[in-house]
Structure formats: structure tokens, C-alpha cells
Amino acid sequence: MSLKGKTAVITGSNSGIGLGIARELARAGASVVLNSFTDTDEDHKLAEELGREFGVDARYIKADMSKGDECRALIETAGSCDILVNNAGIQFVSPIDEFPLDKWDAIIAINMNSAFHCTAAALPKMRTAGWGRIVNVASAHGLTASPYKSAYVAAKHGVVGMTKVVALETAKEPITCNAICPGYVKTPLVEAQIPDTAKKYNMSEEEVIEKVLLERQPSKAFATVEQIGGTAVFLCSDAAEQITGTTISVDGGWTAL
């Protein structure tokens, strides 16, 4: 599944799932563009180290995914964009009648609108190159729902719907668009929540993992960022040439319930 000669832009990729996907794409030979809203020495060092590790070109470009013009500027600044991974996302939990308007707007902008802006900017480049892969990181919540997550669920359902539209618009071209729908993934952010949740509910960390975090994940095991990255590499490969407009669940059986 060599991706040598391809350039991948991964939004929200200086940590967690985005970085895991970037690493696996680089392992497959793709040049990678990392992104987040910060612009620190550590961000650029992360890209440099990734490039050295896998022997590929790796850059970091700052862009705020809550702003449409910066989303589009990211793609233009990247130059080439053979592979686009729309991964940037945030979460906030609240009853719908108490949901803060600024949090709703931010989640819709970052989780859904950014995928629209980046895709709109990337498609002309893919058409010029004669090849393209768009991978949207949706969620199990793009296929089902949970209480108190109205903005996140709405945004992820929107991403799944947009995935299908883009696939239909590019169906006769050498471009595909698919969505990965992870369940709970073991990231530093999730791991950091476990001790606090254990203290809050007076539970052991093992109980928190099984009964709270993975309550709806039948495998009772986290997916890994490497597994999500490997799924993205597959979707970018020749083997997935006729896979477009669909979702791939990496959720330990969550959406089978």
C-alpha cells in the first residue's frame, strides 16, 4: 500500500487520532502536512521528527479550523493535496436546552464546516493531479446518538452525509471520499480523563474503562490511533479504488447493537 509521491494534508494532527493517521500515511511513503490552530516550536519540531523517522517530507502549517478562510488557505499553502484527511474536532457535553451558543457554533464550525471548506479547496487540486482521496474522520456518533452531545452528533451526522455527496459528485473520477467512524480511541486526551473519572465516581480505573467509557463498545477495548491510521491508509490504496461514499466503523461493535 505504497503512497510514495502523494501529499497528505491532515487537519487537527499535532496529537491524538490526527497524528496517528499522519504517522501511518508517512509510514506508507506519503509526504504529510500537519495542522492545528497553534504555531509553536514544538509543532514544527513534531513535523521535522516525523519526516526524519519515515524519510518523507513533513511540514506543519497553522490554520484555525473554525474559520473557513483559514481552512481554504491551509490547502493553498500546502501546494499539493492528493490526500485530504478531515480530522479536526472538539467536543462539549450539555443538555440541549442549556447548550451554550458559542460551543454549538464552534463544534459545528470545526467538526463539520471545516470539512466542507477543505474539501472544496482540495478537489480542484485532485482533479488537476488526476487522483485524490478524501478521508473524513466522523464517529460512531455519525451513525448513532447519545444524550447531551447534540452539537457533536449533528456535526458528525453532517460529515457522513457530506461524504456521500462528495462521493457522488466525483464518482466518475479517480477520486474517492469515505468516512471512518471510530468508537472510543485510546488517545492521551482519553487516558487523562480516566483517573479524574475514577475519583469522581469512586471507581477503579478498570471499572471506569469498562462501565463508563466503553459502556457502549461491546469489545470492551479501545481502538488505537494506529488502527485508525491503518484504515486511512487502506482507503487511500489501490485496493479501495471502488470504495467511495461509505462509512467504515472502527468501534468494537458499537453500531452493531
Brief write-up:
It is built from 8 helices and 9 strands. It has helices at 16-27, 41-54, 68-78, 101-129, 150-169, 188-201, 205-213, 225-236; strands spanning 7-10, 31-36, 58-62, 83-86, 132-137, 175-182, 185-186, 223-224, 247-250.
The number of distinct helices, counting runs of at least 4 residues, comes to 8
- In CATH, what is the homologous superfamily of the largest domain? NAD(P)-binding Rossmann-like Domain
Mean pLDDT score: 97
CATH topology of the largest domain: Rossmann fold
In sequence order, what are the helices and strands, one letter per element?
EHEHEHEHEHEEHHEHE
Q: What top-tier CATH class of the largest domain fits best?
A: Alpha Beta
Number of domains: 2
| C-alpha termini separation | 32 Å
The 3D shape can be described as globular
Strand order of the largest sheet: 3-2-1-4-5-6-9
What does this 3D model show about the protein?
The structure is a single chain. By secondary structure, this protein is an alpha/beta fold. The chain folds into 2 domains: 7-184 and 223-250, Rossmann fold, CATH 3.40.50; 186-221, no CATH class. The protein contains 8 helices and 9 strands. The protein has a 7-stranded parallel sheet, sandwiched between helices. The mean pLDDT is 97. GO terms for molecular function: 3-hydroxybutyrate dehydrogenase activity.
